[in-house]
Structures are given as structure tokens and as C-alpha cells.
Q: What sequence folds into this?
């Protein structure tokens, strides 16, 4: 499934009309190369992470759920930076292909890592829908980045840490959660927001920064805990976008 998605997205990328640059002056050529290298580098890093996860799964070093979350993280790390390099239209088209591939994979019973989990989940479909929803709203690239990293990185770390660190377990809507996993999600959220405040050009004030460090991890961790069947993949990034909007950033 990953291979089909990669091929389809590459074809889409090569055929996308906005890639054409009519003016090949030095400035436009540099911009063109920067856009292409950024997209290709993000896709390469994501692809290598997926291949590493599949290799470890085949070697029985990690289970299907951990593999699925690593693929989840790879997807987020790949897509999160795309608004810096390409249009939201391209992102919408690419994620529409991803959703179609996921549905076909479920129908045909392929890609074990995404199917053989011990709970009912449509997380991959919600993932694609969330990215499309964000792209339709067209936030700034930094806010899109933060929302998608919450969607993929924070959520993925919650599962991986929750499985590997012994802590108290609890159940929400019949789905198992752990204190360690929720703490990992919150700490990842704090890291994302702190990094954004330090390295981006978003106009954080002291008050909005401190408030962000409190509100983002609490609200998003609560959504991650209470959204059933993988729907946190949709609720979490939209809540991130909503909080940024309320804070006026």
C-alpha cells in the first residue's frame, strides 16, 4: 500500500501544473529547486522511516501496533512541512489518494501493519481527512506544521511510550489508555509549541506563550483520550487550529 501511494503521489507531483516555472531567471530557478528539494527530502525521510518500521516488524522486533504508529509518524513528518514548499491544492490531492489507497487496502486485506491491531480503528482515514480539512482552511505553514505534528508525532509517541513504559492503564470508550502514554502525548505537545515559539515567526507574547504551554497539551490530550475509533486523528489537529485562532496567532 505504501508503495502504491508513493508511486501515485510521485505521478501527481510530476504532473501538478503549479510545478511549471515559466521564468527561469536565477531567482525563480533557485526557488524552483528549493521547492522540489524540500518535497523530495521530506518524502525520502518519511519513506526511509516506513521501510525501517516494516523491516523491524518482519524481524519481530516490534509489533503491528508500533509499526502502524511509526508509519503514522512518518506520514505526519512528511506532510507537515509541505505548505512551505507547495500549494494546499497539491496536499489535498495527495491526501485524497492516500485515503483511497487506505480504503482499497482494507478492502483487499493488504498491509498487515495497518490492519492487524487489537482494536477497531479508522485512524488512517481520519488522518487523511484531517490533513484535507486543514488544507481547505489554509492556515499559515507554521500552524499547519503544529497541527499535523500533534496529529502524527504526539499521538504516535503516546502509543509507543504507552506500550514500552509500565504505568497505570485505564479505559475510555472501551479503548485502553495509559498514564505514560498520555504524559508522552502532553510532553510532545509542549515540545512542539515551545519549538514553534522559538524558531517560527509567530507573534507569541509572554502571556500567549505561557497559556499555550498549558492549554495545548491539556486540550489535545483530552481529545486524544476521548475520541473513539481513531477519530482523535481528526479532532486533535482541528482543536490545535482552533486554539491558535482563539489566541490570535
A:
Amino acid at each position: 500500500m505504501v508503495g502504491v501511494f508513493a508511486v501515485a503521489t510521485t505521478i501527481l507531483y510530476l504532473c501538478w501544473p503549479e510545478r511549471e516555472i515559466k521564468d527561469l531567471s536565477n531567482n525563480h530557478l533557485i526557488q524552483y529547486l528549493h521547492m522540489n528539494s524540500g518535497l523530495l527530502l521530506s518524502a525520502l525521510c518519511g519513506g526511509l522511516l516506513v521501510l525501517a518500521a516494516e523491516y523491524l516488524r518482519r524481524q519481530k522486533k516490534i509489533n503491528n501496533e508500533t509499526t502502524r504508529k511509526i508509519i503514522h509518524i512518518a506520514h505526519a513528518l512528511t506532510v507537515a512541512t509541505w505548505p512551505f514548499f507547495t500549494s494546499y491544492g497539491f496536499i489535498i490531492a495527495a491526501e485524497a489518494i492516500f485515503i483511497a489507497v487506505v480504503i482499497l487496502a482494507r478492502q483487499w486485506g493488504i498491509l498487515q501493519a495497518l490492519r492487524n491491531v487489537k482494536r477497531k480503528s479508522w485512524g488512517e482515514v481520519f488522518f487523511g481527512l484531517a490533513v484535507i480539512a486543514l488544507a481547505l482552511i489554509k492556515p499559515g505553514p507554521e500552524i499547519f506544521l503544529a497541527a499535523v505534528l500533534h496529529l502524527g508525532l504526539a499521538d504516535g509517541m503516546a502509543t509507543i511510550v504507552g506500550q514500552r513504559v509500565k504505568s497505570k492503564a485505564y479505559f475510555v470508550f472501551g479503548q485502553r489508555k495509559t498514564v505514560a502514554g498520555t504524559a508522552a502525548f502532553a510532553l510532545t505537545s509542549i515540545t512542539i509549541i515551545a519549538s514553534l515559539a522559538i524558531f517560527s515567526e509567530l507573534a507569541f507574547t509572554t502571556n500567549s506563550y505561557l497559556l499555550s504551554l498549558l492549554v495545548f497539551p491539556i486540550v489535545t490530550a483530552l481529545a486524544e483520550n476521548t475520541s473513539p475509533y481513531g477519530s482523535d486523528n481528526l479532532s486533535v489537529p482541528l482543536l490545535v487550529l482552533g486554539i491558535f485562532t482563539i489566541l490570535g496567532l
The beta strands are 169-172, 175-178.
